[in-house]
Amino acid sequence: MTALTNPNDVYLLAQWLAGDHSNWQQAIDNPPFFAHIRVGIRALPNPITDNGVWLFLEQAYDYELHHPYRTAVLNLIYQNDRIEMINYRLKNAETFFGASRDRDQLAKLDAEAIAKLDGCTQWVHRADHQTFKGEVEHGKKCCLNRKGVDTYLAIEFEVTENTYSSLDRGYDIVTHERVWGSIAGAFNFVKKSSFSSEILLGSTP
Amino acid sequence: MTALTNPNDVYLLAQWLAGDHSNWQQAIDNPPFFAHIRVGIRALPNPITDNGVWLFLEQAYDYELHHPYRTAVLNLIYQNDRIEMINYRLKNAETFFGASRDRDQLAKLDAEAIAKLDGCTQWVHRADHQTFKGEVEHGKKCCLNRKGVDTYLAIEFEVTENTYSSLDRGYDIVTHERVWGSIAGAFNFVKKSSFSSEILLGSTP
Lengths: 205, 205
Known about the structure:
The structure is a homodimer. The first copy, chain A, contains three helices and 13 strands, in the order H-E-H-E-E-E-E-H-E-E-E-E-E-E-E-E. By secondary structure, the first copy, chain A, is mainly beta. A ten-stranded antiparallel barrel of chain A has the order 1-2-3-4-5-7-8-10-11-13. The longest helix of chain A is centred in the first third of the chain and has 9 residues, at 9-17. The two termini of chain A are 24 Å apart. Chains A and B meet through loops of A and loops of B.
């Protein structure tokens, strides 16, 4: 069923993800049902460990690019025959607002700045030659409170060399009803500029 | 069930609608599930007829304010014990892009510029002292093709003095399945500036 994922795919996935992604075309094609979103993903100039690849991610409305509504640090490693993207939150996210487009700012991000988010690792496998597919680890443990309701996160995403799509939803931890998220479908991003050359090979995937 | 709608409510509804509306707060509160939308509604400086009130409407992504994805002319009249908002399309919409914020441009809009849209009249009644509620006329005849599928429009909206909410959806004319529509519920707009003083009373409501 699943194409074989190999250890070096950690670097390939990181290269495909590293960039400035926009869903402008989708927003234009479906007014008014998709906001115009930008996702900036960039390798940490000073990786926290030698294990795999460390990426900074920030997601923002295009009109509020310097005030992202989501930031994260992702450590991509190869284990359990798949790529695991371990999810870290930033203790002081505002310090790094805009850092996906400012490498000097991003260089200041160190181990002290982040804390691991349990239950929120994303499992990624190679679906075919052109595609990786991912989801949140099983167990419904990636929890967040939204509008006063405790929800668990469900993400399905797909990455190719130049595109990235993601369907994010939140379900009530008690009733399992959908509390928030897309009804109209996944966000579809296209890579507008690539930061793949900053992905350094050679450490342990 | 329904509070009594009276003929002069045509003017009151028009005054409440006339303005520059934004859902910025909603977009900020629910990232990334609501695009930032602006709706500009303004009285025609040269009404097409003396019957009721004539409004121009344009709806745009905030980042594309001068390239609205929807334009319309609405004639609000009192008939059948309710307010009816008769919907006209612009034959050359681009000529009037931005006209809700440019009264000189809007003054050029005349009877030749518009064509009535059958089946797309909106029926509005007074729900209570503070609120009007509306919907598309019954009959499922307000059709539009979206992504290659013929759909009929369903709109539910609510207007108060300073707010305006709208839930727009399209259903397949054959299967009645929802084809497009709101990701996460109604759009909620707040009036940022009012053009109510341009609503002229005294003609036939």
